[in-house]
Design brief:
Low-confidence stretches: 27-35
Radius of gyration: 35 Å
Strand order of the largest sheet: 4-3-5
Oligomer: single chain
Keywords: Metal-binding, Zinc, Zinc-finger
GO molecular function: zinc ion binding
Pfam families: zf-B_box (PF00643)
Order of helices and strands: HEEEEHEEEHEHEEHHHH
Number of helices: 8
Protein name: E3 ubiquitin-protein ligase TRIM23
Number of strands: 10
Helix content: 40-55%
Shape: elongated
Distance between the termini: 107 Å
Strand content: 5-15%
Length: about 325
């Protein structure tokens, strides 16, 4: 390369040379700064204090990038300057940057927006400038992850609304079945004694109506009475079968929606890289839920939930 008026400062960065230097600097001597983890008696992960391994860390200094117990945190940050360092509980420790699989000394900073790279969109500065993503359209990792998180939150809101609709529909199905079948309820008599009393359902009322009608006829109509009862029973049976099938379908659908919601919540807790990698799966999940919600809406619009059993008589 020709050196211009600005001298060597005008030359482009040699990322390959920088990577080699960083690897030499981060050799065996640079790998001793990671926190030691252990497993407690109850199975939870325990992080040792970086200052005193006999202690269990409880805070993380975002400036020093160290895990400290309460005593060591106070001792190592006792000066006015160090006391200004931000120390947070381990649960609030920021996610560590994910390193590039191709250039291990560089962190993932960008997301490729090209259609052909969506299977592996993550890239570091070397991938962007000289690697397989050279010249590709891209965006910064954190805003892209935040955008995906926002879409997940919107989907979670839709899921909650969808879940409420399914639950309400399921409750109506339960009520309709109870109205049709009837049952037992506890009532008190005049002296305050509780006892169970049978509450007839619409199916039993329909049968009673049929029996009352045919009781006034002659014995020659008995065969017609039995036929009518069988028609009522067949209608009730078919309606109950359909309603119970609807109940089962709603239970399965509710389980699928709950599973999707749980998957979204787990995705929201992942680091930026995993959130970006989950983008396609989340999009497919949203499309599936939208189709299910449309089918559910069409079903709810066309099906009228009615516990009555129609009975008509002809001469």
């Amino acid at each position: 390369s020709k050196i211009g008026d600005s001298g060597v400062w005008g030359l482009k960065k040699n990322f390959a040379l920088l990577e080699l230097l960083e690897r030499l600097q981060n050799g065996p001597a640079g790998q001793c700064g990671t926190a030691e983890e252990a497993i407690g008696l109850s199975g939870e992960s325990i992080i040792r204090c970086d200052e005193d391994e006999a202690h269990v860390a409880s805070v993380y200094c975002t400036v020093c990038a160290t895990h400290l117990c309460a005593d060591c945190s106070q001792l190592t940050h006792s000066t006015k300057t160090l006391a200004k360092h931000r120390r947070v509980p381990l649960a609030d420790k920021p996610h560590e940057k994910t390193m590039c699989s191709q250039h291990q000394v560089h962190a993932i900073e960008f997301v490729c927006l090209e259609e052909g790279c969506q299977a592996s969109p993550l890239m570091c500065c070397v991938c962007k400038e000289y690697g397989k993503h050279q010249g590709h359209k891209h965006s910064v990792l954190e805003p892209e992850a935040n955008q995906i998180r926002a879409s997940i939150l919107d989907m979670a809101h839709c899921i909650r609304t969808f879940t409420e609709e399914i639950s309400d529909y399921s409750r109506k199905l339960v009520g309709i079945v109870q109205h049709i079948e009837g049952g037992e309820q506890i009532v008190e008599d005049g002296v305050g004694m509780a006892h169970t009393e049978h509450v007839p359902g619409t199916a039993e009322n329909a049968r009673s109506c049929v029996r009352a009608y045919f009781s006034d006829l002659h014995e020659t109509l008995c065969r017609q009475e039995e036929m009518a009862l069988s028609v009522v029973d067949a209608h009730v049976r078919e309606k109950l079968i359909w309603l119970r099938q609807q109940q089962e379908d709603m239970t399965i659908l509710l389980s699928q929606v709950s599973t999707a919601c749980l998957h979204c919540e787990k995705t929201l807790q992942q680091d930026d890289c995993r959130v970006v990698l989950a983008k396609q799966e989340i999009t497919r999940l949203l499309e599936t839920l939208q189709k299910q919600q449309q089918q559910f809406t069409e079903l709810a619009d066309h099906v009228q939930l009615d516990a009555s059993v129609p009975v008509t008589f002809t001469k």
